Structure to design on (178 residues):
């Protein structure tokens, strides 16, 4: 609840909508003014609804609620710009989820760094039914994130993102470096 905003004028004062005989009455002016004070933030919010639904423009206190719409838990310790970028890119990230490119892009948005991923999988086709299978027999993944200051990127954040974005049977290793 955003609550009252001191000094916020109503875009449509109720007193102006009453007949002129009531507009001249001091009691009616004070009485209707109370409704204007309560309705002004509501009308202002409705007028700016499009901006509230845009993660790059939404008020900071509304961003956490908006992130719930796309199923993302935001860490309050992240800079505001990073939180906005994570929510704004959520739909695209879900579209690429489960791929190396999707994991790389997701980690790039979360950390703001350069991400290298080496995995043991592979894809190939052959006309020869006896051809060797691509990849390696034991699935594994190595993730290296390069950032300017590794102390500012929590390793558990990267670890959790990798664990959520990879297949469950793949063993992984995460490294955050400069």
């Amino acid at each position: 609840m955003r609550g009252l905003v001191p000094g916020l004028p109503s875009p449509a004062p109720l007193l102006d909508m009453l007949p002129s005989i009531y507009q001249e009455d001091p009691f009616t002016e004070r009485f209707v003014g109370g409704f204007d004070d309560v309705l002004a933030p509501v009308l202002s919010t409705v007028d700016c609804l499009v901006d509230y639904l845009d993660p790059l423009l939404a008020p900071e206190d509304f961003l956490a609620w908006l992130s719930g719409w796309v199923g993302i838990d935001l860490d309050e310790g992240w800079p505001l710009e990073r939180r906005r970028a994570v929510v704004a890119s959520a739909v695209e990230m879900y579209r690429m989820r489960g791929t190396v490119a999707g994991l790389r892009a997701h980690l790039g948005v979360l950390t703001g760094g350069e991400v290298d991923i080496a995995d043991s999988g592979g894809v190939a086709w052959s006309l020869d039914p006896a051809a060797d299978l691509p990849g390696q027999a034991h699935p594994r993944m190595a993730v290296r994130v390069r950032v300017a200051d590794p102390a500012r990127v929590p390793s558990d954040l990267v670890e959790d993102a990798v664990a959520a974005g990879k297949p469950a049977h793949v063993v992984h290793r995460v490294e955050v470096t400069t």
Observations:
- The longest strand covers residues 140-146.
- Residues 1 and 76 are 19 Å apart (CA to CA).
- DSSP finds eight helices and three strands in the chain.
- Strands lie at 114-119, 140-146, 171-177.
